[in-house]
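Run Putative membrane protein through structure prediction, thanks.
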Amino acid sequence: MVPEQSGHQHTHSHAHAHGPAAPVSKHLRKVIAAVLIPFAAAVVVGLALLWPGGAPAHERTGVGFDRQTQQGKVVNVDQVDCKDVNAAQLPAGGETTSPAGDPVTGDSGARLCGKATIEVTSGKDRGRTFIEVVQPDAPRQLREGQGVVVSYAPAAPHDLQYSVTDINRKFPMALLAGIFAVVVVVVGRLRGVMALVALALSFAVLTLFILPAILQGSNPLLVAVVGAGAIMLIALYICHGLTARTSVAVIGTLISLLLIGLLGSLFIGWASLTGNTDDSTGLIHGLYPHIDMSGLLLAGVIIGSLGVLDDVTVTQTSAVWELHQADPTMHAKQLYRAGIRIGRDHIASVVNTLVLAYAGAALPLLLLFSIAQSSVGTVTNSELVAEEIVRTLVGSIGLVASVPVTTALAALVVSADRTGLGAEALASAPVRTGRGRRRRTRS
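Sure, done. The structure for Putative membrane protein is below.
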């Protein structure tokens, strides 16, 4: 049996502990359950009612991502005169250069193209070969032994049914994912393993529920709310345990998501954002015209904000809990003030991260506007940029609001607790007499 420690030793050990949070009172558990159980039940009911049972079938158009594809391999690449392979798209004059900047010319000065022999390695035509001509100024060059993705157009003439559409990147992507998993497990240990499990389950909700349900014609906003709720419950409780601390973070995340949904709905409608601004969204609208594209945009805002929200709410809740364990006599107001000071630093870093993430994703678009020498007003008024601005600002408002909301909830919950450290501290504190105020001695 572990010997009983003194009050000072007990408090000091908890201040530096990194294990599970101290349990809260039965009354508080009932209050938290009264809030979360109906929400969790609503998520389960929503999953059951909206469950799609798979994506709907449709006839492929052969455009963009909506093409039949197979795997292939570059068997051989020969350098030939571009005129001999009818590469009519070459510039009329001037010297042609490779992507490395070197002239691509033969001994006679003729421009050289790559004549690649491609073998289909999957599907019903496995073993079939075809020729792919690669111009010297093409951004993607082929080399012998390289894996490729080939598109199949059954309605085309026999010799034109197959063409190279992309490079096979499965191995480097899988290797990078493996390195990521190893780093997470080595550093995070059991928490890292649970984080990977939560990530896999979140991805399963996204691919098995959210995407097929939207394609089936369900309201994208409703699907996003139910799906985000499921991801939030799965990820937070698996990673951080079924505790009152995690439950407070869940409630704070839920309130912030509701705020993001309301603001997003208001400003997407007010700014007349259609959500149909590029080739991908145009193709989706063409294939599934019943999908509400503006609702899809709002759904993306909610799901995109969820990951960062989890980080903020969990951090703020943990900060308040640790402050309480360091000084159990702190009341709610003191806990809130101390926690919000930590939160202000978190706000600055998170908002900057979110803005830069969206700016990085839209960097090619911003470069196009710079080339056109468009004014700032013209750039921000275009729907492509306005979508990103609304997405960024609405998400940032939700993130900023999550800090005081979650901090206040955590401070109220942990200060109202009358078990564990809080009860011990209050029991050992000087008792008030008459109207005099209790004074604490400072060490």
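The beta strands are 68-81, 112-120, 129-134, 147-152, 162-167.
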